[in-house]
Design a protein that fits this description.
By secondary structure, the protein is mostly helical. Helices cover about 65% and strands about 0% of the residues. The chain is built from 26 helices and no strands. It starts with a helix and ends with a helix.
Length: about 550
C-alpha cells in the first residue's frame, strides 16, 4: 500500500544520506548541500515520522553550525505517547533557533537557499525564526543586524505568497499573534502549507516589532517607514491592523510626526495614507497623556490630505479631525492644558469645530475648503461657496494666530506639503507672506538669479509651483494699495529671461505667473527708474522667447 511505498522511499533516502555524509563529511561545499537536503526532514510529521526520526539521528553526524546539539534521545522516540511528536519538534526547533541566533547574519543566507524548492523547508524555517524571537532578546546593534537580515526575506516571501493567489486569510484571528510555533503543530496534519506559512509570518512580523519595543531597541524612522508601508499596502492588510497600531504607538519617539510624513510627503500610495490617518485617529482615541499635545500640534498636517484629490484619503482625514476634536474636548474638560499652550489651544478648538460644522461641504466639493479659509481668515469679500457671515467667525488677532500656526507648521513639511498648504491658503492674499514664509521666496529667487552657474541646483516641479504661487501673491499685493518697494525685487527678477533659460519651464513659468498678474495699477505704482527697467526687461524677454 501507500504506507509501504513511503517506508521504502524513506529507507532509500536515509541510505543515500548516510553514504553522502560518509563520503563528503570533510568537504564544506558538498556538506552545505547535504545539510540543505536533510533540513525539511527535521520537522517530524505523523505520516513520515519514521523517516524524520532517522534523519534526526543522522544530523548529529553532519558537522554543520546550525545542526549542533539537536539529536533526539531514545526516550523521545516513544512516539506513541500523545504529544510526543510536538515535544520532539519543539525541542528541535529550539535548538535550531539557538544555533541560528549565534550568528544570524551568517546563517540566514543558508536558510534561504535551503528553502528555495520546498514549502515544508519554509515552514520549518519560519518556525525557527518565530522561536528565535521568543527565546532570545537581541539588543542594540544585534537587533538592528537581525532586522536588516530578516525583514527583506520575509517581505519578499510574503509578496510571493500573496501574488500566488492561493492564500486565504479572511478569517484571521488576532489571538494567533501570541502563539509560539508549537501552537501551529496540529495544523501540519491538514492545513495548506502556504496558508500556514502566511499565518506564521504574520506572527513573526508581530514578534519582530514587539522585540523592538520590549528590548528598548527603538527602530530608526527608515525601518519604521519600511514596515508601515509594507503592512499598509498589503493585500491582506486586515491581518496587520494590530501591527500598524502598535508600530505607530510604541516604535517611535514622535508618533504624530512619524505618521504625518505619510500624508504630507509626495508620492505616498493612497492606501498607505488612509492607514496612516486611521492610525492617527487611533492614537487620538487612546488615553496616552504624553501624545495629546503633540497630536493637537500636528493638526495642520491633516489639512494636506484633506485638500488632496483622492476621496478616500479626504474622508480618512476628516474622520481624523473628528477624533482630534474629541481629544481636544476631553483635554478641555480635564483642564490639563497649561498657560503656555492656552492661546493656540483655544483657537484650535474653534477651528476644529468649524471643520466639523462644514464637513459635508468640505467632502462634497474639493474647492470648498480653500474658499472657507479665504472667507474666515482673509480680508476679502464673501465667497458664494461659503455660508454667510463666515468672514466674522474670527477676530483679526485670532486670524493672525491661526495663519501663523498653520504656516509655521507647514514650513516643516516636505516641499509637496508646503505647496498644498500654500495653495489652500492662497485666497487669504498677502497675509500668506508671513515673516516665516517670505524667506522661502527669497531663497528661491537667489537660486533663480544664480541659474547661469553650472553648480546651481535645478528647480523641481514642486519648487517651481511654490515659487509661482508666491510670486502671484506678491504681484497681487503690488497691484493693490498695500504694495511696497520690498516686493519689487523678486517680481522684476522673475521677468529676467535670457537665451539660456527661455526654454526651461522652471524659469518660464514664474515669469508667466508675474505677467498674468501685471496691470496698470501695478505699473504706475512703480518709481520712474523701475518702470524703465521693467519695460526694458519685458522687451528683452520678448526677444528671447521669439529667438
Amino acid at each position: 500500500g501507500s504506507t509501504d511505498n513511503v517506508s521504502v522511499t524513506g529507507e532509500v533516502a536515509i541510505t543515500c544520506l548516510k553514504k553522502a555524509i560518509s563520503y563528503f563529511h570533510d568537504h564544506s561545499d558538498y556538506l552545505k548541500n547535504i545539510a540543505a537536503m536533510i533540513f525539511p526532514l527535521l520537522l517530524v510529521m505523523p505520516q513520515t515520522q519514521g523517516l524524520n526520526l532517522k534523519a534526526l539521528v543522522l544530523v548529529n553526524k553532519i558537522n554543520w553550525p546550525v545542526y549542533q546539539n539537536i539529536a533526539v534521545s531514545s526516550s523521545d522516540e516513544a512516539t506513541s505517547i500523545p504529544g510526543s511528536l510536538s515535544s520532539i519538534n519543539l525541542k528541535v526547533i529550539n535548538s535550531l533557533a539557538g544555533n541560528f541566533m549565534a550568528h544570524p547574519e551568517d546563517n540566514i543566507s543558508w536558510f534561504v537557499e535551503s528553502c528555495n524548492d520546498s514549502e515544508l523547508s519554509k515552514t520549518l524555517f519560519f518556525f525557527v525564526l518565530l522561536q528565535s524571537l521568543l527565546l532570545i532578546k537581541p539588543k542594540g546593534d544585534e537587533f538592528s543586524a537581525l532586522f536588516g537580515s530578516v525583514f527583506p526575506i520575509l517581505k519578499a516571501e510574503w509578496e510571493s505568497l500573496v501574488n500566488a493567489g492561493d492564500v486565504l486569510l479572511d478569517e484571521f484571528n488576532s489571538e494567533v499573534l501570541d502563539w509560539d510555533c508549537s501552537a501551529f503543530f496540529d495544523q501540519l496534519l491538514y492545513a495548506n502549507l502556504r496558508s500556514l506559512n502566511a499565518k506564521v509570518m504574520v506572527c513573526i512580523f508581530w514578534k519582530l516589532i514587539m522585540s523592538a519595543d520590549s528590548s528598548g531597541n527603538l527602530l530608526d524612522d527608515s525601518k519604521i517607514k519600511d514596515l508601515f508601508v509594507f503592512f499598509a499596502s498589503s493585500k491582506f492588510k486586515h491581518v496587520f491592523s494590530k501591527h500598524l497600531h502598535f508600530l505607530a504607538a510604541h516604535c517611535s519617539v514622535s508618533p504624530a510626526r512619524l505618521l504625518s510624513k505619510f500624508f504630507t510627503d509626495e508620492g505616498v500610495p493612497a492606501a498607505v495614507q488612509v492607514e496612516s490617518l486611521q492610525c492617527y485617529a487611533f492614537l487620538c482615541r487612546m488615553s496616552q497623556d504624553r501624545w495629546q499635545t503633540e497630536l493637537l500640534v500636528e493638526f495642520p498636517s491633516l489639512l494636506v490630505p484633506l485638500a488632496g484629490d483622492n476621496q478616500s484619503v479626504r474622508v480618512a482625514s476628516m474622520n481624523c479631525t473628528d477624533e482630534l476634536r474629541a481629544l481636544w474636548r476631553r483635554i478641555d474638560c480635564s483642564g490639563k492644558i497649561n498657560g503656555n499652550n492656552a492661546t493656540w489651544f483655544d483657537f484650535l478648538g474653534e477651528l476644529l469645530l468649524l471643520l466639523d460644522q462644514q464637513k459635508t461641504l468640505i467632502l462634497s466639493d474639493k474647492k470648498f475648503l480653500p474658499s472657507l479659509f479665504a472667507s474666515t481668515l482673509g480680508s476679502s469679500c464673501h465667497n458664494i461657496l461659503v455660508p454667510q457671515n463666515m468672514e466674522n467667525r474670527f477676530d483679526q488677532p485670532t486670524k493672525e494666530r491661526i495663519i501663523e500656526f498653520i504656516l509655521g507648521s507647514a514650513l516643516e513639511f516636505s516641499n509637496y506639503g508646503k505647496l498644498m498648504i500654500l495653495s489652500l491658503l492662497k485666497g487669504i492674499g498677502n497675509a500668506i507672506m508671513h515673516p516665516k514664509v517670505a524667506p522661502m521666496l527669497s531663497r528661491f529667487m537667489k537660486q533663480y538669479y544664480d541659474r547661469s552657474r553650472k553648480s546651481s541646483q535645478k528647480f523641481s516641479n514642486t519648487e517651481t509651483r511654490i515659487m509661482c504661487l508666491l510670486l502671484e501673491v506678491e504681484s497681487c499685493a503690488m497691484s493693490s494699495s498695500s504694495g511696497g518697494d520690498d516686493l519689487q525685487y523678486p517680481l522684476l527678477k522673475a521677468l529676467q529671461l535670457d537665451g539660456m533659460t527661455s526654454d526651461d519651464p522652471a524659469y518660464i513659468e514664474p515669469c508667466i505667473s508675474v505677467l498674468n498678474k501685471l496691470n496698470s495699477q501695478f505699473y504706475t505704482g512703480l518709481p520712474n527708474e523701475v518702470q524703465v527697467l521693467l519695460a526694458i526687461q519685458l522687451f528683452i524677454s520678448r526677444v528671447c522667447c521669439h529667438s
